[in-house]
Amino acid sequence: MKGLSRVADRSPRVYYSSIGALFALLLALVVVAWPTRVVAQVELTWSPSMVKGPPGAPVTIVEFSDYQ
Amino acid sequence: MEEYDGRIRLVFKDRPLAMHTLARPAHEAARCAGAAGKYWAYHDKLFAAQPRFRRGDLLAYASEIGLDADAFARCLDERRFKADVERDVEEAQALGINSTPTFLINGQRVIGATSLEEFRAVIDKALQERR
């Protein structure tokens, strides 16, 4: 009970600043994670013998497949 | 491919799944056939014959399409294209591709053996966007 009364006595400003800190942390995480998601790209390589169709074709279909 | 004459380029990438224990040698064998100029003939053989991919089977398919048996066996036994298959697997994993077949049609992902109509719709949309 002693502990509870101490929490109840705390100034509302303490709660606001805690929420603010949490929000800032979440925002920082989003900012850090966002460019990684957008920039992450994989440069595909392929063997010429495994390609059909003209190099200048407007549509390229890359098929990842398993023979078994 | 014939329907979209000259407007489509198809690239085949190896994505042998770990649970398919005979797949990796088959993918390496196909690349050996490719080095001898017969990738697609061997590719078609493999899909028709799956899952019979023991060493003897792979050698037999090579002979059936007229490949030099000794040269093909050497290529297969030396695992000459092991690293190339592995590179394809790593690229697939980097893209989060864990099931097959998975297609990227001008970058748009189509997962699984989808209907011809759906496939055609994605291709037609990609063609329109390129006009």
What does this structure look like?
The complex is a heterodimer of chains A (68) and B (131). Chain A is of the alpha+beta class. Chain A has two helices and two strands. The termini of chain A are far apart. With 131 residues, chain B is mostly helical. Chain B folds into two domains: 1-96, no CATH class; 101-131, no CATH class. Helix content of chain B is 53%, strand content 11%. Chain B is globular, with a radius of gyration of 16 Å. The interface between A and B is large, with 24 and 50 residues. Strand 2 (59-65) of chain A pairs antiparallel with strand 2 (102-105) of chain B.
Topology of helices and strands:
The complex is a heterodimer of chains A (68) and B (131).
Chain A: H1 2-9, H2 12-39, E1 51-52, E2 59-65
Chain B: E1 8-14, H1 23-35, H2 39-49, H3 55-64, H4 69-77, H5 82-94, E2 102-105, E3 108-111, H6 116-129
Antiparallel strand pairs in B: 2-3
Helix pairs in contact in B: 1-2
Descriptive terms for the model:
heterodimer, A: 68 residues, alpha+beta, 13% strand, disordered N terminus, B: 131 residues, two-stranded antiparallel sheet, 6 helices, 53% helix
Quick structural overview:
The complex is a heterodimer of chains A (68) and B (131). Chain A has 68 residues and is an alpha+beta fold.
Number of helices of chain B: 6
Overall number of structural domains of chain B: 2
Major beta sheet, strand line-up of chain B: 2-3
Number of helices of chain A: 2
Counting copies of identical and different chains, the oligomeric state is heterodimer
Report the sheet-strand fraction of chain A. 5-15%
Flag low-confidence runs of chain B.
none
How would a crystallographer describe the biggest sheet of chain B?
2 strands, antiparallel
**Backbone shape of chain B:** globular
Name the chain pair with the biggest interface and residue counts per chain: A-B, 24 and 50 residues
Order of helices and strands of chain A: HHEE
Q: How would a textbook summarize the main sheet of chain A?
A: none
Radius of gyration of chain A: 28 Å
Count of strand segments of chain A: 2
How far the N terminus sits from the C terminus of chain B, by CA atoms, comes to 19 Å
